[in-house]
Design goal:
The chain is an alpha+beta fold. The strands form three sheets. A seven-stranded antiparallel β-sheet has the order 1-3-2-11-10-9-8, sandwiched between helices. β9 and β10 form a beta hairpin. α3 runs antiparallel to α14 and α4 packs across α10.
Length: 408
């Protein structure tokens, strides 16, 4: 949830050549590769089997574990109709039992919720039920506009500026008091507190904007909190129900859900760990209402790969809206509409998002056509994970580092 990528990526990409040399000395890990998940073939010549590149992510995951993550896991998929996949793990999912991460494990996705929300907004735009340049107040309930202190800050913000983080609205998770409760010294006492979207919005609007609307890119969870409210006002259904109806069910994402205030994860799942006051704390159970439409989702690696492949592959949006996803002009190339653009040292640009919430860091990246996708998950929210993430992407998409792991 609290995960603006550009600063971390700017620092970390400069270290990738050093990382590559380090990776060469790391031991290879066990990996499994399969050509399962094949779509049924209906007539015509059978599709050529998809081919995965040599596995180089295993040493990169090991580096994440060596740098403090209890466990890490990745899933690579290549192809559309005929799909090959590779699942790789390092470390453990549970420090007490020592069990390894599993491909079917559920975890908190944090800000990886945002591309799902953006996809629904773009579907509504394609249906002419809203416009990307509509003023946000016109797409919110009148009662909310009338009772929200600081609502004047919304008057010149458009739906598009929420999507690409150019609204200038204060990021509610940076409020000092709330930040202490969400992830600081007050985490233990407040981990099960319930937070309504209206309450979190009031917190955001109690602070002055960080910039005029449209002036610059500045990542803010407040933007997607508002987009959840926009979806509910336009459709008459909670944003989670609408994402489920429009995205989760059609794409058959059986491991993805929106828990609301439920602190439990669906089975199977590993543990999640955070650091509070210099000590590691089990953060598996939290009330995810702290994140809402900005980051409450629970998912699996397989579901993330299927979603991003479908999204970039043009299966969820019409062509015009699919192109809009990758429009980064207003953010200086950093962010589209719910997607990061990440240019790797080898010149390859991948599209995706990361997610950071108590006890979990995860990230998905896919090629422009959606044919080659990688998702990985780490069961801690240590800031070091975002800084080291580029080494995993470079290993997968650039071939940085030695092949690692055994296919079977």
């Amino acid at each position: 949830m609290r995960s603006p990528l550009p600063a971390a990526y700017g620092r970390a990409c400069a270290r990738l050549l050093v990382v590559a040399l380090t990776l060469a000395a790391l031991a290879a890990l066990t990996a499994t590769a399969s050509t399962g998940d094949r779509a049924p073939h209906r007539g015509g010549p059978p599709p050529a089997p998809a081919a995965l590149p040599p596995d180089r992510t295993a040493p990169a995951l090991r580096r994440l574990v060596d740098d403090g993550a209890p466990g890490a896991a990745s899933l690579s998929t290549v192809g559309t109709r005929s799909q090959a996949s590779r699942f790789v793990t390092a470390g453990v999912a549970d420090l007490r039992s020592g069990r390894r991460m599993r491909r079917a494990d559920h975890f908190r996705a944090g800000s990886l919720t945002k591309p799902f929300v953006a996809a629904v907004i773009l579907q509504l735009a394609a249906e002419h039920r809203l416009g990307l340049y509509d003023p946000v107040p016109s797409r919110l309930p009148g009662s909310l506009r009338a009772t929200t202190r600081g609502a004047a800050a919304l008057s010149r913000v458009t739906v598009r500026q929420l999507l690409d983080h150019t609204s200038g609205l204060y990021n509610y998770t940076r409020d000092p008091r709330l930040a202490r409760q969400l992830s600081g010294s007050g985490f233990r006492a407040h981990r099960y507190d319930h937070h309504s979207p209206a309450e979190l919005l009031r917190t955001a609007l109690s602070h002055p904007p960080t910039a005029p609307p449209g002036a610059r890119y500045a990542y803010s969870n407040t933007n997607y909190l508002l987009l959840g409210m926009v979806i509910e006002h336009v459709t008459g259904r909670p944003y989670a129900d609408e994402v489920t109806r429009r995205i989760i069910r059609p794409a058959r994402l059986s491991g993805t859900s929106f828990p609301g205030s439920d602190p439990a994860l669906p089975e199977p799942y590993g543990r999640g760990y955070t650091v509070v006051g210099g000590r590691r704390v089990d953060a598996t159970g939290i009330d995810p209402s702290r994140a809402g439409a900005a980051g409450e989702m629970v998912t699996t690696l397989g579901d993330l790969n299927r979603f991003f492949a479908a999204l970039l592959g043009g299966k969820l949006l019409p062509p015009r809206e699919t192109r809009e996803l990758r429009t980064t002009k207003r953010t200086g190339g950093a962010y589209g509409l719910g997607l990061y653009a990440v240019e790797l040292p080898c010149g390859t640009t991948v599209w995706g998002h990361n997610g950071d919430i108590n006890g979990s860091y995860s990230q998905t990246a896919t090629t422009t056509d959606g044919r080659h996708t990688l998702s990985f998950h780490v069961n801690t929210d240590s800031p070091d994970m975002a800084a080291l993430a580029p080494s995993v992407l470079a290993a997968e998409f650039c071939g940085t580092g030695p092949p690692g792991g055994a296919s079977r």
